[in-house]
Amino acid sequence: MYDREPIWLVLKNYLWGAVGAVILSIIFSGLFSSFFSGYISNSEIQTQIDAIIIAPFIEEITKGIFLLITISDKRFDNITDGIVYGGAIGLGFGMTENFLYFISYSSSIEQWISVVLIRTFFSAVMHCIATASLGAFLSYAKLKAGLYRYLLPPAGLTTAIVIHLVWNFSVSSLYTAVFGIIFIVFSLMVFSAVFALSISSEKKIIHSQLFDEAKEGLIPLEHITILNSSRRNSKGWVDEKIRKLYIKAATTLAFRKMQFQNSAGLKKAFYEKDIELYRKYIRHLLNGKEAEQNET
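The chain above was modelled as a monomer; its predicted structure follows.
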């Protein structure tokens, strides 16, 4: 990631998944289950409906509520962060759900071990992938203009629900469990490819947006290739006292410019003001160090 987010915010999303989303899911799943039970007399069918239809629908919505709030912040600026925050919520939810399963499962020790292994290595991963996928869609929608901004969020929620539904359906029977494992492995491969593309997109944004700043003399031209590569973490290319501050400011400037181009109204005015603030800050960082060197 080229624009690292605060650990406290990642943890905040994780805790929502582990506590808030779980509590809401239990409440609303219970309400929906009670409603359907009034029309269904077969307990096995009711169990299937709870696991395959109600759980994916309710859980992905409750996980996504806080994710939507996080991404709605004006300072949220790239797809990778949406994936990370969504993944954090999913892992938090999976952790709590697994714990509840582990302490309540009362069959044989062999079956308990099987449940622990499957839920640890696959169910938690499923929750992570599902909500991270929603995060990717929500983030992309925020960075796009026009109809995409309204179509992508429901498409993301549908994708998350389908991933969840397919997994729950596959593990509802011993005959389809292998298919579920294959599905999660395949989903993880696709998810990894999307994450890699997102990182690559960040690099292109940083390069294209900062190139104009270099032409205007704000940033040295040679810094552009450094700022969008792993070389940014090495010492020597800029004064070490300002390196981390400079990286953060330049990266944020690049994303603010991209957001400015894809926004309108009050948001556009906010980003325009933020762009000027970051330009002044970068100028202060670089010129301040040059002044110190000239004095010595």
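The CA atoms of residues 206 and 213 lie 11 Å apart.
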